[in-house]
Design goal:
It is built from 10 helices and no strands. By secondary structure, the protein is mainly α. Helix 3 packs antiparallel against helix 5 and helix 7 packs parallel to helix 10. 74% of the residues lie in helices and 0% in strands.
Length: 257
């Protein structure tokens, strides 16, 4: 396994990694707190949350297996070379675990708080069901020949696809309502910071190793940062430029006659 050539770059990498972890981890709390204070989830798209849980669950499986499994690491080095570094850091594992927990809490809030006429769409339920069925099939395909690296690459691909589509329902909902009320912008600002520092962290490692394998060896992490940054910019544009003063008034149950 490769080692760091520059101590300053290694230190920078670790600092950026934990900034990314802290930013992304804290980014879940504004929405959870916002929901708790309002006792309502109106304005938060449920499809976004359901797809997000599948995304983070698959990413957790990928990170845990690649970081802790010697069998998976052996296959990784065989494919990419023993002079390469594992493209998953401790902060990646910690973030994934925390993300699954907080997303599950958000789903619980959806179940118990005021949600108006909103519900999870059949399209999202179909997508999630198909994804986990496909993952189960891939597991049994990989089992006889122990193709564990290929299997976790499938989970990595799942989280990439989920990242590509999970933001769309919320963006469309904001557009139709002409409002971002009910959707916490604090979540987006912290997510944007996490995406930028995560991408910079990978760049620092590539500079130190004089290799770009870090990017295409973990294409999921690369796309995760880029796609997240794109949609974060879109949501910031919606919140601050397109619909800055257009708030949807949500009546509390006591106000309903």
């Amino acid at each position: 396994m490769a080692s760091w050539n520059s101590i300053p770059l290694k230190t920078t990498y670790e600092i950026l990694g934990w900034i990314s972890f802290i930013s992304w981890s804290i980014s879940f709390y504004p929405q959870v707190i916002f929901n708790f204070r309002r006792k309502s989830v109106v304005g938060l798209n449920f499809d976004f949350v359901v797809l997000n849980l599948t995304k983070h669950s698959s990413y957790l499986i990928y990170n845990v297996c690649l970081y802790f499994s010697s069998a998976v690491q052996k296959q990784y080095f065989k494919k990419y070379g023993h002079d390469q570094m594992i493209p998953v850091a401790a902060n990646d594992v910690a973030f994934s675990l925390h993300a699954v927990l907080l997303t599950a809490i958000t789903l619980l809030q959806i179940a118990i708080y005021e949600r108006g006429a909103q519900k999870v769409s059949k399209i999202s339920l179909t997508i999630v069901s198909a994804v986990w069925l496909a993952a189960a099939v891939c597991f049994f395909v990989a089992l006889p020949s122990h193709k564990w690296l290929w299997l976790i690459s499938v989970f990595n691909a799942i989280q990439v696809v989920m990242t590509l589509i999970k933001y769309i329902p919320q963006a469309v909902m904001n557009f139709r309502r002409k409002s971002t009320d009910g959707f916490s912008i604090g979540n987006i600002l912290l997510d944007f910071l996490g995406g930028c520092t995560n991408y910079t962290q990978m760049l620092v490692q590539s500079i130190d190793q004089h290799s770009w394998v870090n990017f295409y060896g973990n294409i999921g992490k690369t796309l995760l940062s880029l796609v997240s940054i794109f949609f974060d910019l879109l949501f910031m544009c919606q919140h601050y430029l397109l619909y800055p003063a257009k708030k949807t008034v949500i009546a509390s149950p006591q106000e309903v006659v």
